[in-house]
Amino acid sequence: MSEYSIINTRAPRLDAPDKATGRATFIDDLNMPGMLFGAILQSPLAHAKILNIDTSRAKKLPGVKAVVTAEEAGLVKYGVSPARYDETLYCHEKVRYVGDEIAAVAAVDLETALEAVSLIRVDYDDLPALFTIEEAMVEGAPALHEGFPQNICAEVHQEFGDVEAAFNECDLVRTDKFISKRQDAAFIEPHGCIADYDLSGHLTLHTSTQVPHYVMRTVAMVMGLPVGDVRVVKPYVGGGFGPKAEATPLEMSACILSMKTVRPVKMNYTREQVFLHSRARHQFIHTMTTGVKKDGTLMALKNECYLDGGAYTSFGIATVYYAGSLLGGPYKLPNMKYDGWRIYTNKPVCGAQRGHGGVAARAAWEHQLDIIAEELGMDPIELRLKNVMVAGDTTCNELNMSSLGMKECVEAVRQGSKWNAKRGKMPRGKGIGMACGFFVSGAGYPIYRSDTYHSTVLIKLSEDGGTVNVYTGSAEIGQGSDTTMAMIAAEALGVRLDDVRVASGDTEFGVDLGAYSSRQTLMTGHATKEAAEDVKRQVLEVLSEKLNTPVDGIDIKDGLIIFKSKDVDFSAIRARYIKEHRGWSDLPRGNDLTFREAARTAYLARGSIVGTGKYKPPELGGKYKGAAVGTSPAYGCSAQVVEVTVDMETGKITVDKMTDAHDCGFAINRTSVEGQMQGSLCMGLGEAMFEEVKFDEDGRILNANLGEYKIPTALDMPNVEAIIVESNEPNGPFGAKEVGEGAIIPTIPAILNAVYDATGVRINELPLTPERVYMALKAKVEKGDTRD
Amino acid sequence: MLLPKFDFHEPTTIEEACQIMAELGQKAKLIAGGTDLIVNMKRKVLSPEHLVSLSRIDALKNVDLSDGPLRIGACVTAAALAESEGIKRTFSAFSKGASVLGTPLIRNLATIAGNLVSARPAADLPPSLMAYGAKVVLKKSAGERSVALEDFFRGPGQTVVGKDEILTEILIDKPLGYTGAGYIKLGVRKTLEISLVNVAAFISLDSQDGSIQRARIVLGAVAPIPIRVPSAEQILVGEKPTETLFVRAGETAAQDSRPIDDFRGSAEYRRDMIEVLTRRALEMAFNEARSHE
Ligand SMILES: Cc1cc2nc3c(=O)[nH]c(=O)nc-3n(C[C@H](O)[C@H](O)[C@H](O)COP(=O)(O)OP(=O)(O)OC[C@H]3O[C@@H](n4cnc5c(N)ncnc54)[C@H](O)[C@@H]3O)c2cc1C
Description:
The complex is a heterodimer.
Chain A: H1 16-21, E1 36-42, E2 48-54, H2 56-60, E3 64-68, H3 70-73, E4 94-95, E5 101-107, H4 110-119, E6 121-126, H5 133-137, E7 152-160, H6 163-168, E8 172-179, E9 192-197, E10 203-207, H7 212-223, E11 230-233, H8 249-261, E12 265-268, H9 271-277, E13 283-292, E14 298-310, H10 316-325, E15 335-344, H11 359-376, H12 380-387, H13 406-416, H14 419-422, E16 430-440, E17 455-461, E18 468-472, H15 481-493, E19 500-504, H16 520-547, E20 554-557, E21 560-563, H17 571-580, H18 595-606, E22 610-615, E23 635-646, E24 653-663, H19 670-689, E25 719-725, H20 747-759, H21 770-782
Parallel strand pairs in A: 1-12, 10-11, 14-15, 18-19, 24-25
Antiparallel strand pairs in A: 1-5, 2-4, 2-6, 3-5, 7-15, 8-13, 9-10, 9-12, 13-14, 16-23, 17-18, 17-22, 20-21, 23-24
Chain B: E1 7-9, H1 14-24, E2 28-31, H2 37-42, E3 50-53, E4 63-64, E5 70-73, H3 78-83, H4 85-90, H5 92-99, H6 104-109, H7 112-118, H8 126-131, E6 135-140, E7 143-148, E8 153-155, E9 158-159, E10 166-172, E11 178-186, E12 197-205, E13 212-220, E14 227-228, H9 230-236, H10 243-255, H11 267-291
Parallel strand pairs in B: 1-3, 2-3
Antiparallel strand pairs in B: 4-5, 5-10, 6-7, 6-10, 8-9, 11-12, 12-13, 13-14
The complex binds flavin-adenine dinucleotide.
């Protein structure tokens, strides 16, 4: 057992009772008096000039309160990265994908709003639409955005060391191509929001978001309001996984409609609109060349990647950088060259999704490393162990592994899966495979250039002394961050978990950059710990004065005050407390002074006791262009082993077992860490085996629903053995770092490698549907290749 | 997605329902579980002025396993079918079909009549029912008729059911002697799937170790309606069941089918899977036939 009383346990989630009983409030549970309903008109065409927009019939429809187009909303450019703001709230000159927003309506009910939308007439002039990277990159292809020839939205060219020279020293160099598919994040709760602009000019936006802070800034900028007049409040959120990490046209439509009508306006995306808004994982096409020595020593990697970006930039610049930078570890790799291109196409916009930019790259590489191991005659685990980094190592692209239990993770899954007993000994049709990966524990820099703190936290003790109130702008989106912050606060202050209440997700509580890049446990955690220590110090100072004993002779543990010296007499404090509470049934008794009495005493001496905490990472990373992307105060890592059965006649894969070891530094809540591991594996399994957003020849999505876009069901998920590895991260609060995204990184390649082990066929394209696997098996038979 | 407006009727007897349908005709749609209809109404594919619910007609909810043919009321749900031990014992392939339809939530609502009348090419109940030689009873105020399921489907979403007719019952003769059947659904994931291909097979043997007397093979999701494959069936009849025989039947079924490419799968894959699944369904049928009596 650890020295701690609260953290590192399996404390139940604070929100569990409310969620289990249906009491938890999500955006769609919220209603306000006088509330209107909004709806958006979206383009039915993939690429067209807008000749005219006629809203007159919509405006005349009884019950319609406002109709807005670019004319009313203006043309303020926004986006994710300030270096590339390329969206306006509504299209003006042209539409760039099926789903591009043209107008919005607020009406007394949703039926009327939808009818009004259908009455808006738009005249278009068709433009040639570009749906693939190849089409879009043709010299002289029509440009989606002026000033971006060949539709290159962003390109990256980096070289660390000298790759060509290193290849010359290698015993084995091989090149492989890998193709992943466009994803949808398939969170269960579609986006929704209520904007409420009041008569004093304050705008409050209740919204299902991962990032209240960024949404507040974008809304203020686009609406032309002082940022202080905009407040963003996040109710419970039913998952985000990335696409909810930016301000949406839905949110901004609700805001402008509320400002026009001075009434609350509620808006929701349908599931189809979630697919159209997208901002989920790009399609990646990687070509990788890796060179090794005979003994397996990794020498160099040349990585070339094309990303199908869709019609706007969103997170894409970061994505195209991550697709290179996240291969710097967890292996010692002295030479790395990366060339990446993100291409605009007339399709919905891709953005960030769990494992941002690193998932396909890792799949491609770990798959290739498996091939290399086989060609060298090495066990895939040995190849990896030969090259793993250890704590203190820095990658060739200058990412510092301040802690790294990579080797421990590999050993843990080797043992946990009984790898040695199974590998190479399974019958045809059954296979076992493994892979590794690492991921940031919070982006090193905010999305906009700033010296801002990444998190500020405020803790206020209730004046009656009973309760510790934590106020944070961080976003509980289902991952359990509120519980994590409560546990950190309770531990740092020395109280029981029941004494802590967390209020979160409100921009009025302070700055927090939100739930993305797996940052909250480390960053919000730091700020929470600091605020709790601040409060503790204040309480102890008062006690020290009142009891005439040195501050360092007093501590707080499990809600009780611990005195080093036996003869501290606190009877006066107790007597006064009891006097104040005559007639109450829960008066403190026993031999120890309680935290409640101490906190009350502090209040009586100093007024409300408020502690603050803040966190921002130190300056991180190199000085080269794009060096910021990939930096983090810490890196989580994991290793996975997957076992599969492949039906050799139909190509259908059954994943039988997954063993995952993840180094999260130090587990604040062990159950939550395992939950993130299980969730990541499930999401990775879906991407590996089923998921692909498909389009018809006019750029319309064919499977914009969860019936035809197939995420794993409970029956597709095998049992997962989740092994927590703790490396004690020096830059993390209590040694903690990420688990939310890193755990998805090895899943796809572990499945790919297991499928190869089962079938003898390498498949370089996702998803591994029965048809794709079957066709690969058939091609092998037709080639007369009978090797198993 | 919002539903269009409609009037709602809830008759409590078959006669009353027939009368309403006779009066409203084109303007009305029957609703059972609504798992197909409501989806289409939300998508605005259909917007009937009237919905006539069958849910309050208790006479449509019975399963009669006593003497004579198995009689299944129109409104029996997939969940009830899948849970019935009697059906599992005698009509294992049909039971299987019901148990792999949708998800538990869908099965609790989805009815057998809705599954037949919605006439989706990939539906899970028609193949095995056709393989068992099922008939359906169609009623209207002016009388009733019975139609073999084989003659029931006209195309995707199209059946012989008239505007004023209600499907009230499904009848299946109990298989006698050494008979068996199998049903296999192939989708991408383990559940909540639309079949890429599904196959039902039925055979009867003249004795436990004898030759095949009758055979029916039904393919789903590879044509506008579920189809039988007479050429493959003929290969089997009169022959001793062997692995090679089943392989040949599978090859013939694949050769004689005309699946199409769509975004769910290619024609080539579907054709190859007909071969594999037909063989496997026949093996299942044979194993059951041998052990049945
Ligand atoms: C998420 C989801 C998953 C699904 N998965 C599957 C699956 O795996 N396999 C599968 O086969 N199907 C599946 N379906 C389709 C559907 O659930 C089934 O076809 C179901 O059996 C339809 O029955 P119902 O009672 O809901 O029909 P309803 O929707 O009520 O009716 C369907 C049609 O039949 C007509 N009708 C209903 N009863 C009668 C009657 N007694 N007489 C005349 N006409 C009638 C209606 O007018 C309507 O046109 C799925 C549907 C959904 C939404």
